[in-house]
Amino acid sequence: MDTLLPTQWIAQCADRLHQRWRTVEPAQLEELAVDLWKDVQLRAMLPEEAAAVWLGPVKVQGDVFAKNNAAN
Q1: pLDDT of 18-47, one tens digit each?
Q2: 67: part of which helix (H) or strand (E)?
């Protein structure tokens, strides 16, 4: 993997977050991406992968919510 500049990593991560949360302001997603970049383990990943890992619990909760509502 080519090493990304922090600004590139943050922009790509924010873009991936925006794909999941289109109603959130891009500036807020960029702030979140900066916070993710500060995490050494997440920063070692590709930005899209780091965003997906961080979003993992959100997706699981969303899937459970959808399943619970479908059952009712």
Answers
A1: 999 899 999 999 999 999 999 999 999 999
A2: helix 47-71
